[in-house]
Specification:
heterotetramer, A: alpha/beta, Rossmann fold, 2 domains, 12 helices, 14 strands, B: alpha/beta, six-stranded parallel sheet, two-stranded antiparallel sheet, binds thiamine diphosphate, binds magnesium ion
């Protein structure tokens, strides 16, 4: 029962899925000998051989498209897109084919694939390495979008994603890859998709978040708890198909909600949650629904990165404002 | 590329693209036919299939013109491609097609009723009973090439003696999907055949606008795979090239690119009017090369075909096509709940309300938006 | 002063922009001799020659990417993507390059391009021809997304988009292309971007919509007016950068809001508007914010299309429910 | 492709890819040098530039290792490419580069301070003062090829005597963007040169995994444009090939594809550890072909170079590089408001609140997120 990082948990889940099911194939750029630029696929080539762990030519559209072909033939491809800034080139295949293979053939052909990609800002990398495309993927009908925020959830949700008979985009918070460790039991037990995780119960305000921002949100909840403020913290985890019921039920109890994401605000997943609250949760709201998001601008290069990403101060400020609302 | 002629300029590689043709425009063998066609009677099934395709095509257009079918893409003029490819494939090969390859689908066991259902705007047309692992018609140009790579990879991984066959048009050869696919397929030596139906036009855009390449077959050189150009109106050449390519693929020798040169005798689709952009003389000239008359001439000359057989065939085709059309027209529309129930393996609870609202509205109002 | 259709208005604006400015270039598939599959570029080849009206090889990624190159050199490319289902292949170039050319070079190079594409369902076409990618584009920082809903607005907004020094994605409602005519004066006068158009003033409920659904929304407003219900109808028109002020001000007056879009709901532009109301407009709301949208499913083939697109009945029902809310 | 040998198989097209090299590994001319290099002294500026590049490269890595620079991609081993290309281009040509082409950027007038600013995570590094129409470094592999097509189209439309030069790596040749670009550029006969630096590796993926093509130069055949392979460690060959291609482009003869065969002597970037995936012997062997020693040998042999000149050069380079590094380090960070103010031509009123909030927070708290 080891303490491992999030990226190690991803690696563990991949190894477990490949050992359990010979149809699981890992493919992508540098996933073989190199073990992936983040080492998420470390050791898989050695364990499962080059036919099941394949370095592809450098082409994201190819990686997504050939995964669809593999999946239609009954394999379970788990492809890696090296950084989410390069995942935009897969959207065409995901929306025009992966998402609708089952629907357009009335279930004759299906698409049990997983597209994994590191996601989000905060690691001071070059351009295009800090993108947050979660809302763009979450808008696509017919797929699932999963975004774990801890080693344990990464392990359990990735297993669930791989076993799911439909396509899943699996976003991994780069910033959390090695930020902290957690005990993960390699028991092959998946966690449920389409479900929020309530990480902390509270009565004063509901904090809704996912991905790397879960980290700061929990910190803030801790800090506020010392000041006597009781925060409920919900990790959305599956951004599509979203478990809005848990969020609505929480806000029905607390009456206040702050949604935290590091993606740009306009048409974001945060907007979706706030919109549902404005409809189905309106009567329970005691204060405006606050969104703490990145601004609607381009992720800057590292020298300004710290000014771009929302941090604890913004979360604190939003909670304070929400709580002070009479 | 240089005009100088230093001895330093050595040759790194040389390449050659071959052209294959057996029957000329008038159906005369310009060379001994290959083994499969040594007996002229062996070509009768090709001919009959091609005539049936043309009947089906005419009926589909008629249905569209009378408001009984959606937009339809005619295969007029490419029947030799369809018969040549269709008869070469094995049942458990995997076929990935465009909207213009209904003839091959027919030979693979997709019924004309199913094809018409699809064109009639019903997804169940892609849930065909015959070749269950074949892909549905691909509308987004060239994107199926990538799927073919994945299919072929799965086949190779499982060491099966199957081949993926992927059809595209001349226009599709401009898209990155195509190049990424042939490049990867050759790098992994996958069992796949890429088949370009070069019908000279991509809607209104002529072949010359797509590429400065002298042949489309030579695009194979970029991938390091064999490529060949064939007369796409000569069913013998098409069939031979595909047989060769399938054999290569099946014995582990990897992919092949075939370019079949033919002509789109019809409008792009029923939504198009080709007279806007191409001269009638060009079309008239192209009719002289069309594949069915050519084959009929050969068969008649060989003594295995005559007028009465032709008439009987046409009657048979007509009956079959009418029956398929009627079966199509008699098919009730799909239940609206399939939009939800076939989206995921298990209909998500989170969408229950959306589903209920849609069904209620479908019953209460149906369509009331404009357009 | 002719009565013309929306697609004719697009054509008129293109001709005017090309006549006014020799840097304006039109490119795309079949835009030349054929005049575009919808005839939006009819006659431009004859008027402006093949160097400025160019049929491209069949490659949407190329069309978007080369437009960026042209724009960086100071041309004003207006490219056409034949149907929005093929525009997904341009997202990579739009988000990774068009959107940030100015930002990443601190204004040294810019990207004054327009990407036009017919959009939306309702014309009974083949697969992939009925897509609504508005939310995906609207999420992208650094660009504008414009979606006209009448011939006059198509003319004025397209001129504005072409003259704008930054990239604009211009979505054209296929269903309205020839549905009705309007008088359009070819005076070269642009309409303002980043502004809603209040098409009808009203006091009981604010109806917010854009694109083809403006048509049904206005019809419903008419019908309800006969019943004594006064609807304010707002055409958002520019989905990014959005004029939320006009919407907030309207809802501040009516207290009720129904947002109507034909795109799938999850993370849609409708969600963005509702989310802003849940924050900045909460105190003014007398009823939950209703979203009338397509369901979160794949656009079906024509035989079920009528069951997919939201229509007048759904708008009526949503308004009724909103008004009945006490 | 067929094993049969029917007379029907005629040849549709033949192609040849040439290989260019003047100086061998030891710096001996294997053939008379071309005109520009007839006088050995003419090669001195190439040599000096290459040595400066290597100094700059070493400094950048040192800065990164000491936490004073972000992730950096070394150009070690490709200095002949950079000098060969950089000296061939005209000032008003347009350069579209990858992250590994800093050497060419230097020759085009981008200062080392600006380059370091970029690698240091500051967009102002791409607002360089020299070649104002050159593109910023392109990170998303091969996507700049499409921009080069647009740039070249604009140049051709305006009938200017300029050329776009687009650099890519061997890995980039697998991406659709590359093929779509060369195909379109040839179809329109655009003034553009595509230059592949084949350094054998794309991070950990070897050239052989990218493609079964015997050469990368032959990918030009798919587009119907001339292609040539050169010894990428021989600055004379690189320069000659680029000069030829530029001349062709400038006089309206259209695009060229050049493949320069070289080797990535360093890790992929400072974030990479190449010893994980490639054997030290391979790297050691590659050092025997490296471009700088080869050229020094030639120049020494020709009597235009010696030890004291070498030492003086190294001193000069060191001074220049140190000064640039200091100027970089002395540059205060960009004002945060540029994130908003440089997003659109006019900062949108709708974002005023977001902008104010960001600036307020930047002042009050700075970074307080983890990682
Ligand atoms: C990706 C994509 N872009 C554009 C279209 C619209 N479109 C449909 S068919 C066609 C031309 C295709 O030409 P070609 O590949 O030669 O096939 P053909 O129709 O001649 O059989 C175009 C542009 C499409 N379906 N998919
Ligand atoms: C579209 C895209 N995919 C993936 C990456 C990540 N990546 C950066 S460099 C690189 C390898 C590039 O290899 P090559 O083209 O040979 O250039 P080299 O680094 O060798 O100069 C990869 C995969 C990227 N930057 N862009
Ligand atoms: Mg064609
Ligand atoms: Mg390389």
């Amino acid at each position: 029962m080891a303490q491992i990082t999030l990226v190690e948990a991803v690696n563990l889940a991949l190894a477990r899925a490949m050992a359990d099911d010979p149809e699981v194939i890992v493919l992508g750029e540098d996933v073989g000998r190199d073990g992936g630029v983040f080492r998420a696929t470390l050791g898989l080539l050695e364990k499962f051989g080059p036919a099941r762990v394949l370095d592809t030519p450098l082409a994201e559209n190819l990686i997504a498209g050939m995964s669809i072909g593999m999946a239609a033939e009954g394999l379970k491809p788990v492809c890696e897109i090296q950084f989410s800034g390069f995942s935009y080139a897969t959207i065409d295949q995901i929306i025009n084919h992966a998402s609708r293979m089952r629907h357009r053939t009335r279930g004759r052909l299906t698409c049990p694939m997983v597209l994994r990609t590191p996601c989000g800002a905060g690691i001071h990398p070059p351009e295009h390495h800090s993108e947050s495309p979660d809302a763009m993927f979450a808008h696509i009908p017919g797929i699932r979008v999963v975004y774990p925020s801890s080693p344990r959830r990464a392990y359990g949700l990735l297993l669930a994603a791989i076993r799911d008979p439909d396509p899943v985009v699996f976003l991994e918070p780069t910033r959390l890859y090695r930020l902290f460790k957690e005990e993960v039991i390699d028991d092959g037990v998946a966690l449920p998709l389409d479900s929020c995780f309530t990480l902390r119960e509270g009565t004063d305000v509901t904090l809704v978040t996912w991905g790397a921002m879960v980290y700061e949100t929990l910190q803030v909840a801790d800090e506020l708890s010392a000041q006597g403020v009781s925060c409920e913290v919900i990790d959305v985890a599956t951004l599509k198909i979203m478990d809005m019921d848990t969020i609505l039920a929480s806000v029905a109890r607390t009456g206040r909600c702050v949604i935290i994401t590091e993606a740009p605000r306009h048409c974001s997943v945060a907007s979706e949650i706030a919109a549902s609250l404005a409809d189905e949760g309106l009567l329970t709201l005691l204060a405006p629904v606050a969104r703490v998001t990145a601004p609607d601008i381009i992720v800057p290069l590292p020298r300004l990165e710290q000014n771009y990403l929302p941090g604890r101060a913004q979360i604190h400020a939003a909670i304070r404002k929400t709580l002070e609302f009479a | 590329m240089t005009k100088r002629n230093f001895p330093t300029v050595t040759t790194a590689a040389t390449f050659q693209i071959e052209y294959l043709r057996y029957l000329d425009d008038r159906g005369r063998a310009v060379t001994p036919l290959p083994e499969f066609a040594a007996d002229p009677a062996a070509l009768l099934r090709f001919y009959e299939a091609m005539v049936l395709m043309r009947s089906y095509d005419a009926k589909a257009i008629a249905l569209q013109r009378t408001g009984q079918l959606g937009t339809y893409a005619s295969m007029l003029g490419k029947e030799a491609v369809d018969a040549g490819v269709g008869f070469a494939m094995q049942k458990d090969d995997v076929f990935l097609c465009t909207y213009r390859d209904n003839g091959i689908q027919m030979l693979r066991g997709v019924t004309m009723r199913e094809l018409l259902l699809y064109w009639g705007g019903d997804e169940r047309g892609s849930d065909f009973a015959g070749p269950r692992r074949d892909f549905p018609v691909c509308i987004t140009i060239a994107s199926q090439c990538l799927h073919a790579v994945g299919v072929a990879y799965a086949i190779k991984l499982r060491k099966q003696p199957r081949v993926a066959v992927c059809m595209i048009g001349d226009g599709a050869t401009s898209k990155g999907d195509f190049y990424e696919s042939i490049n990867a397929a050759a790098a992994w030596k996958l069992p796949v055949v890429f088949f370009i139906t070069n019908n000279q036009w991509a809607i209104s855009v002529p072949r010359s606008t797509q590429s400065a390449a002298a042949t489309l077959a030579q695009k194979s050189i970029a991938a390091g795979m064999p490529g060949v150009q064939v007369d796409g109106n000569d069913v013998v050449a098409v069939h031979q090239a595909v047989q060769d390519a399938l054999a290569r693929a099946r014995c582990g020798d990897g992919p092949t690119l075939i370019e079949a040169v033919t002509y789109r005798l019809a409008d792009h689709t029923t939504a198009d009017d080709a007279s806007r952009y191409r001269p009638p003389e060009e079309v008239a000239a192209a009719w002289k090369h069309e594949p069915i008359l050519r084959l009929r001439n050969y068969l008649s000359e060989a003594g295995v075909w005559n007028k009465s057989r032709e008439e009987a065939l046409l009657r048979r085709c007509n009956t079959e096509v009418q029956a398929a059309a009627q079966a199509y027209l008699d098919t009730p529309p799909p239940p609206p709940e399939q939009m939800f129930d076939q989206l995921y393996a298990v209909a998500p609870a989170a969408y229950a309300a959306q589903r209920a609202a849609l069904l209620e509205n479908a019953q209460a109002h149906g369509s009331d938006h404009a357009g």
